[in-house]
Amino acid sequence: MVDVLVMGGGNAALCAALMAREAGASVLLLEAAPRAWRGGNSMHVRNLRCMHDAPQDVLVEAYPEEEFWQDLLKVTGGKTDEALARLVIRASGTCRPWMRKHGVRFQPSLSGALHVARTNAFFMGGGKALVNAYYRSARALGVQVRYEAPVDRLEMDGERFVAAWVGGERITARSAVVASGGFESNRDWLRQAWGQNAQGEWPADNFLIRGTRFNTGVLLKQLMDLGADTIGDATQAHMVAIDARAPLYDGGICTRLDCVSLGLVLNREARRFYDEGEDFWPKRYAIWGRLVAQQPGQIGYSIIDAKAVGRFMPPVFDGVQAESLPELARLLGLEVGQFTATVAAYNAACRVGQFDHTRLDDCHTEGLSPPKTHWALPLDTPPYFGYALKPGVTFTYLGLKVDASTAVRFGGQPSPNLFAAGEVMAGNVLGQGYTAGVGMSIGTAFGRIAGARAANAAGHASDFEGVDHVAA
User: Fold this and answer.
1) Closest alpha carbon to 144 in 6, 11, 10
2) Identical fold at 2-182+217-235+397-470 and 239-392?
3) Of 55, 313, 375, 394, which is least packed with CB atoms within 10 Å of its CB?
4) Number of H helices, E strands in the chain
5) How far apart are CA 279 and CA 433, in angstroms?
6) What are the residue ranges spanned by the domains of the chain?
7) How do beta strands 364-365 and 350-351 pair?
8) Considering the chain, what is the average pLDDT of its residues?
9) What secondary structure does DSSP assign to 167-212, as a single string?
10) pLDDT tens profile 115-137
11) What strands lie across the sheet with 47-49, from one edge to the other?
12) Phi and psi torsions of 175, nearest 5°
């Protein structure tokens, strides 16, 4: 028997394992993926959203708690637990020294990420380097790691964790942490959640999965069946509009299209359906997957002209290019008359002021529905480019309801020795929407707390200074 069993292999799981081991607990981490694919969705991340009251190493200016909170409140539409959200925000301001101690390195943001240079700390080498650093540190500290070890079922005694089963093997532990992600790779569950639309389509059949294929929600489903308290909507997710040519799994961040705010987005009927210039892209990019999912055929088309080139992170695939708008419509398979009429109406509605893609400028439309609030420049300069878009699911928000202790709850009663961290409980903070880097903030904060609490439940006193005063 080990002291602490961690189920999962991404950022939250690793933070939990490291914290528990630092407290003196023996730790076994079970990763469902093979070693080459370890790390879950964390291997695809780039940065961590961080509160700071003054410039700090790679972070410029200041990003105080209240601004972070207002950003989160806006993107979630109020669907967030303020106490838990503020716990994450405060923890984000103190976690980087601990991360560095375990080998994580940071770098200044690149020119293509200027909007988050103040708010987000970027990982040197990206998420894969972060995951590898944590695994190296875990090995050095004596954390046992097993790959290709998916937990098939849990054994509980009421609210108390007893054992986990991997195939026919029964693994007991004094306490456990569930950090096994959402259910985004479970196509049947996605179909059940989204159902059929008015056109008789099953929208989930057209979703691509930006991250790992191993997040199938097995433990989440079993805990739900055992009566664990849940939170969130099964259709809500970190869902991004990505290149329709992306692979089914593990396309990662390079499949994202970042030119949406600089042009127009049309559905397959060549009509606009949302304000492309509503806010800075890092605050709004994660609504566009859901918007596209609600369109016929779950497909959209991002249209820009030559003026936008060089003002966004270059996509991994070249767009369709044409010297005229009718030609672009034909190449994209869109009805030419409606396409040109949509663009003409937009061009006529543009009220161009001082264009500046680095701020909320005064270039907007008048008399157009939906409006374009910022960065509204006419599409009139060839060549023109078009990118087909599909919904790309990163992680789902339906999850386990927790409090600041991260204990899994059953009928309102907290488990004495089963804790949850990361995407499997992120819905407590993210009821909808997303802002860049906050998933890593959630996973890091709750992963560290869960590991310390699990060590305590196994009889080891944790010296993590953040658990008692942040999570009280």
Assistant:
1) 6
2) no
3) 55
4) 13, 21
5) 13
6) 2-182+217-235+397-470, 239-392
7) antiparallel
8) 95
9) TTEEEEEEEEEE----STT-HHHHHHHH---TTS--GGGG-EESS-
10) 788 999 999 999 999 999 999 99
11) 47-49, 120-123, 106-107
12) -155, 165
- pLDDT given for residue 471 in this prediction: 41
5-32: buried (b, 16+ CB within 10 Å) or exposed (e) per residue?
Answer: bbbbbbbbbbbbbbbbbbbebbbbbbbb
pLDDT for res 262: 97
- Residue 412's pLDDT is 96
CATH class for the region spanning 2-182+217-235+397-470: alpha beta
pLDDT of 168 strictly over 60: yes
- Are residues 126 and 109 in contact, defined by beta-carbon separation less than 8 angstroms? no
Residue 74: both structure tokens together:
């806006």
Assess whether pLDDT exceeds 70 at residue 378.
yes
Q: Which fold has domain 239-392?
A: Flavocytochrome C3; Chain A, domain 1 (3.90.700)
Q: What are phi and psi of 94, to 5 degrees?
A: -125, 0
**H-state helical runs in 242-365:** 281-284, 288-293, 325-332, 336-349
- Would you place residue 114 in the very low, low, confident or very high pLDDT band (cuts 50, 70, 90)? low
